[in-house]
Amino acid sequence: MSDRYAVIGNPVAHSKSPAIHAEFARATGQDIDYARIEAPLDGFADAIARFRAAGGKGCNVTLPFKQEAVRIAGRLSERARLAQAVNTLRFEDSFGDNTDGIGLVRDLAGNMGVDLRGKSLLILGAGGAAQGVAGALLVAGLRRLVIANRTLSKAQALAERFPGVRARGYQALAGERFDVVVNATSAGLAGESPALPAGLLDEKTVAYDMVYGRDTPFLVQARAAGARAVDGIGMLVEQAAESFFLWRGVRPSTRAVLEKLRGS
Ligand code: ATR
After folding, report:
1. In the 3-class helix/strand/coil scheme, how is the chain assigned residue by residue?
2. Domain count, the chain
3. Which of 128, 125, 163 is nearest to 144 (CA)?
4. pLDDT of 81-108, one tens digit each?
């Protein structure tokens, strides 16, 4: 029988993870079965226990359970501890990891050719998505890392956890410029964009939206300003590759999967 994995979330019907992992398995000759499990909002721990009992080897965890998964893991990677969020569980040793941050860094550096060393980077947002990637960005060799949020106190609370990181409100960004601006807010899901000061994005900026599969107002705004604008599909594929490696000890190539998802 194939080794069983799954993505557990709510909602989870739209998840591209089963298709991505199936493609990784095919390309690397690994015999796995990867399903979607929608857990009730108050039933995450039960869903994990049931999947384990049914022979599951590990799972990806998505919204809204990434914080709860921290408590389920017996042992956490350093990056999951920093993020206070787990997106990958390996059951054999009760290991919890977070591959979101490294997924973003690999997409920027590997797929987009953006060398982060010595660069300035701005994270927009201070919720779960921002928290999940801040630690990985911090060790990527940046010269400057700033977290800006509509609610300044949340940016301050997040920045305090990472040495050298500064917090700002959006209007306090006027006159500043950054090499890379990462939108980690959920604004795009509501068809909105963070209220950024004019001039923040220009033709030298790499503008990255962690949301994927839709042309968010942030990306539209970035493109209109001449910036290089890209959505988060590459991050999705890269975080999946790192999870696959954790489970199988084999690192799949991401290029073909990414090209397929981008329809190119
Ligand atoms: P996630 O896990 O997706 O990060 P979250 O923890 O609810 O979700 O955080 C949502 C983030 O998007 C927050 O930073 C939120 O800003 P506030 O803390 O000020 O609420 C941000 N956000 C959501 N809608 C936004 C909008 N229309 N404009 C700017 N920021 C927005």
Report:
1. CCEEEEEEECCCCCCCHHHHHHHHHHHHCCCEEEEEEECCCCCHHHHHHHHHHCCEEEEEECCCCCCHHHHHCCEECHHHHHHCCCCEEECCCCEEECCHHHHHHHHHHHHCCCCCCCCEEEEECCCHHHHHHHHHHHCCCCCEEEEECCCHHHHHHHHHCCCCCEEECCHHHCCCCCCEEEECCCHHHHCCCCCCCCCCCCCCCEEEECCCCCCCHHHHHHHHCCCEEECCHHHHHHHHHHHHHHHHCCCCCCHHHHHHHHCC
2. 2
3. 163
4. 999 999 999 999 999 999 999 999 999 9
The verdict on whether 66 is a catalytic residue reads yes
Tell me the whole-structure pTM to 2 decimals: 0.96
118/81 same-domain check: no
230 DSSP β-pair partners: 208
194 Cα: distance to centroid of ligand 1 (angstroms): 9
Residues 200 and 241 in one domain: no
Which ligand 1 atom sits nearest the alpha carbon of residue 170? Answer: 29
Q: How far is the CA of 154 from the centre of ligand 1 (A)?
A: 10
Note down the domain range covering 75. Answer: 3-98+234-263
Q: Residue with the nearest Cα to atom 31 of ligand 1?
A: 187
Q: For residues 156 and 247, give the distance between their C-alpha atoms in angstroms, rounded to a whole number.
A: 35
Q: Are 45 and 69 in contact (CB under 8 A)?
A: no
Q: What is the pLDDT of residues 25-39, one digit of tens each?
A: 999 999 999 999 999
Cα of first residue to Cα of last residue in the chain, in angstroms, is 34
